[in-house]
Amino acid sequence: MATASARWNHVWVGTETGILKGVNLQRKHAANFTPSGQPRREEAVNALCWGTGGETQILVGCADRTVRYFNAEEGTFLSQRYCPGGEGTFRGLAQADGTLITCVDSGILRVWCENDKEASSDPLLELKVRNDWLDLRVPIWDQDTQFLPGSQKLVTCTGYHQVRVYDPVSPQRRPVLEATYGEYPLTAMTLTPEGNSVIVGNTHGQLAEIDFRQGRLLGCLKGLAGSVRGLQCHPSKPLLASCGLDRVLRIHRIRNPRGLEHKVYLKSQLNCLLLSGRDNWEDEPQEPQEPNQVPSEDTETDELWASLEAAAKRKLPDLDQTQGALQRRKKKKRPGSTSP
């Protein structure tokens, strides 16, 4: 584990194999962090969020329904707590005022106090959708939710490729705006730095920016080759981090000129990500590497190339010796002779 340089990582990614990966985009390097030292699929990372005190602590939600506390400065796991209730894995984590908030696939949201007891889990707000033309209830398949800054409104994306904006102040508790994108289920969503649009991703790796004030499409981003699992925009820079089943972390520039800024292959299926909000994250100096510490991947690569070079020297004859032998053979030949 590269614990000394953990604080300089720009993106933290949770994998299906239970590994928390810290990615430094400036060095093009990814470090693995696991609580037990060995990856386990039962501990697949499904949700990430920052803890209290800035970006020094990360809350890691695992498939075994435990929330692990990770020190992002030292690169070590501190403690964990078990959060039962509901069905499925974690879909969201948050920490506020010393309490932990969890949400699972079955839609159960719980608030946990510091004494490991659960606070009230009664629904505080129930949002509805207008019945269809046959007066039948319309199914709701919300996949992600974001609160709009400076207001009580929230925006959701659904598995029916819809983007909806709700206003809790409205007495009807129904969407005040609804837009659709594509034909495939939307799986992830994030707010842009301006707060006037959202970027959504679907099961076919398509990314699109939608203005939720007018419900119109602003543009699309290309490059993904699988279902999108995690999206997050930088709070002040026009950058978007994305990950998914194609095992690649991508950083796109979402303002003109749009395009791909970074691309890192991470070997495992990626479930979620957490992007650092530092303003100077691309300008930080690189830490000097310890003289006796060499990454294991670099050591394996050097050994491989050394073995290939040794094999090549054994198989290929020396060029100078070969040329000298040919010249001696030519001198021995007589004029007009046809045999060697």
Notes on the protein architecture:
With 340 residues, the protein is mainly β. It has a domain at 6-136 and 188-207 and 220-279: YVTN repeat-like/Quinoprotein amine dehydrogenase (Methylamine Dehydrogenase, Chain H, 7 Propeller), CATH 2.130.10. Helix content is 10%, strand content 39%. It is built from 2 helices and 23 strands. The protein has helices at 296-315, 319-332, and strands at 11-15, 20-24, 29-33, 45-50, 57-62, 66-71, 76-82, 90-96, 99-104, 109-112, 142-147, 154-158, 162-166, 175-180, 186-191, 197-202, 207-211, 216-221, 228-233, 239-244, 248-253, 259-265, 270-275. The strands form 6 sheets. It has a 4-stranded antiparallel beta sheet, with no helix packed on it. The protein is globular and about 95 Å long. The termini are far apart. The relative contact order is 0.11. It comes from Mus musculus. One of its GO terms (biological process) is ribosomal large subunit biogenesis. Residues 279-340 are annotated as: Disordered.
